Structure formats: structure tokens, C-alpha cells
Amino acid sequence: MAGASGRVLVVDDNKVIRQLIRVNLELEGFEVVTAADGAECLEIVHSVRPDVVTLDVAMPRLDGVRTAARLRADARTREVGIVMVTAGSLPEGTGGPCGIDAFVAKPFEPALLVETVRRLLGREPLAPPAGPTEQPPEQPRGQAATAPGP
Predict the structure, then answer these.
(1) pTM for the complete prediction?
(2) Which of 22-44 are b and which e, b meaning 16 or more Cβ less than 10 Å from the residue's Cβ?
(3) How far, in Å, CA of 99 to CA of 131, rounded?
(4) Domain residues for 43?
(5) Helix (H, G, I), strand (E, B), or coil: what is residue 80?
(6) Can you give the CATH number for the domain in which 18 is found?
(7) Is-contact 40 11, C-beta < 8 A?
(8) Quick check: is 148 in a domain?
(9) Closest Cα partner for 142 from 17, 20, 53, 41?
């Protein structure tokens, strides 16, 4: 029943992480397309037309923060949900300017990422998921994966 829950573009330079995220989302009914970095994401995003994009922070050619900012600056992708999946912390103040909707810290429980994607699609109530996550200090557009929504 692929595609029943939405389309997700998974962007990470680590092939193992891309596959881990892809398999877990596909098992939950999502249609998944992958890209190896932000530049590839921007090359295919208009043909893929995802509902949600997951982005790693540190990637070659174009990092996740700059990719998110470009997605928000484009009228065609402005409303796409963006989940930052990162092993490190984000540079101070990057949550607001680039419009990240949710953050999931690596290593992560696959169920946490699936739940976060579902919440962005409005398919689950905004309840705090179980599991540890890191939260950057500033997030005016969205929320961390552990914080209940307004």
C-alpha cells in the first residue's frame, strides 16, 4: 500500500542511514525517494513532489540547513514538512530562519522518525513520543520531536 500515507524525500549522504530510514518508512506505507545530499534534493524535489523531506545536517555539496532554507524560499516547496535528522547540534539560531518543522537526533529509534513524519502530515495527534532527542534552542516555525505542539 505504498503512497497511502504520503511521499517522503530522504536526504542523507550516508547510504546506510538512507536505507534505514527508507525501509522503516516504506514498512509504514510511505512512498520514499532518496537523495545523497542537498544539491541532489533540490534537483529532484519538483519532480518528486514530497509531502515531507528528511534532511541530514552535514552533507557534501549542500548541507541540510542551506537545503531547508532553499526549500522554504521556493513557493513550490514552501509548505513541505521538513525534519532535520542529525547526529550533531545545529548552528545557533538555524531552526527559525530555515523553517525546520521537527528535529530527530541520531541515533534514533525508527518508530520516532515514523511518528514525527506522520505528525507533520497531520495523521497522528501531537503527543510527545517516547525516546531521547536533542532540541535546538530556537524553533519558531515547528517543534522538536519531543515537544507537544500548540
Answers:
(1) 0.77
(2) bebbeebebbbbbbbbbbbbbee
(3) 24
(4) 7-120
(5) coil
(6) 3.40.50.2300
(7) yes
(8) no
(9) 53
DSSP letter at 90 equals P
Structurally, the chain folds into a number of domains equal to: 1
Is a pLDDT exceeding 70 seen at residue 1? Answer: no
**What is the secondary structure of 118-139 as a DSSP string?**
HHHTT-S---PPSS-----S--
Give the DSSP per-residue string, 14-60.
-HHHHHHHHHHHHHTT-EEEEESSHHHHHHHHHHH--SEEEE-SS-S
Task: Enter the C-alpha cell of residue 95.
Answer: 531552526
pLDDT tens readout for residues 77-121: 999 999 999 887 655 554 455 689 999 998 899 999 999 999 999
Asked if residue 128 is part of any domain, the answer here is no
Domain assignment present for 96: yes
> What Å distances lie between residue 55 and 30, 64, 132, 149, 150, CA to CA?
17, 5, 19, 21, 24
DSSP state letter for 94: -
Q: For residue 49, is it within any domain?
A: yes
